[in-house]
């Protein structure tokens, strides 16, 4: 059990819980977390202490919370990690003004703004030779007077997601899909009509079900060198309006060529900390195409820990124990899921993937990060059971009785 550091994590979702579980498993260390509201799965946990504060993502409150916590633990290093885009931004823009005992493995605000603004991110991909979907950047002042260089269906998403969520409207989603131009124009009208004023990304829809998706998680050390990469093959995503695109089932895999491209991009930017890329395989031209980067561990980060590269250990090795070494590419095949196995088998398309899943379950290489025995107790088990059962309703509502076989 380590006593020379303590994790302080901001947000209150499965991302936070997965990181806290990694710290607890590897070092026996209990994490502290702060988010805006009481929320599952962080509330009532034995492996982390969670405190809600509705002003947690406000600059003055955030700095006050970090400073107070650092003072209470002045005999230890405080590992600060944001697990939501708003918190990542707060850490990044305050990185030079944090208390001396606070460690924040992240990039500066200028690079963060460039990477998380999708228009600028695609320009970086272009320069690095990383493929991305056919893209048109729409600006509010253009209205409906513009021509697209590609046909539908269309994917519509804001360039600036933080600004976008500050302007809610009925039917708001992370990502929209429009079958035709009229539907596209209507979605743009809703987005800008709510008050959003930054650019909007319009892309040619890449065909293919959830199993064409990949997620790449990387850790870059304080010198800007990539020390760990883990590629996940997404087999199923969530399909609720606010959760669409969130991963539900992942099997780890290797793709040396793909990993090499993103390693070169990150090291060329002198990137620091965790990065998380969403990627989709385009069967029309056989290319993997990047959608976006998250400058933090992703919600599904426990798929990395489950495959043998504990996400907490990467940070501790780098900042606390000052270890160096070559980049570790995860090649251990494991299964991660956050839905009941029955839901996974009903909705994961293609029998070949279900065969893989059965094999990994039989070998004991399957994990649901929320199902953790040391964090038991009847109330928590009941909450876990309720959350799992809710997925049967959600998938039936948004995908129908059963996923259509597409072999």
Describe this structure in words.
The structure is a single chain. It is globular, with a radius of gyration of 21 Å. The mean pLDDT is 95. The protein has 13 helices and 17 strands. It has helices at 14-27, 59-72, 85-93, 109-116, 118-128, 161-165, 181-193, 256-268, 302-306, 311-320, 341-347, 351-362, 378-399; strands at 5-10, 31-35, 48-52, 77-82, 102-103, 135-138, 154-158, 176-178, 200-204, 213-220, 226-237, 247-253, 273-282, 287-294, 328-329, 335-337, 366-367. The strands form 3 sheets. Strands 10, 11, 12, 13, 14, 15, 16 and 17 form an 8-stranded mixed beta sheet that branches. The protein is an alpha/beta fold and 407 residues long. The termini are far apart.
Brief description of this entry?
With 407 residues, the protein is α/β, with parallel strands linked by helices. The protein has helices spanning 14-27, 59-72, 85-93, 109-116, 118-128, 161-165, 181-193, 256-268, 302-306, 311-320, 341-347, 351-362, 378-399; strands spanning 5-10, 31-35, 48-52, 77-82, 102-103, 135-138, 154-158, 176-178, 200-204, 213-220, 226-237, 247-253, 273-282, 287-294, 328-329, 335-337, 366-367.
Primary descriptors:
407 residues; alpha/beta; 8-stranded mixed sheet; 5-stranded parallel sheet; 13 helices; globular
Query: Helical stretch count?
Result: 13
Helix content: 25-40%
Mean pLDDT: 95
Strand percent estimate: 15-25%
For the terminal residues, how far apart are their CA atoms? 49 Å
Structural class: alpha/beta
Along the chain, the helix and strand elements come as EHEEHEHEHHEEHEHEEEEHEEHHEEHHEH
Poorly predicted spans:
none
Strand elements, count: 17
Describe the global form: globular
Query: What is the alpha-carbon Rg in Å?
Result: 21 Å
Largest sheet: 8 strands, mixed
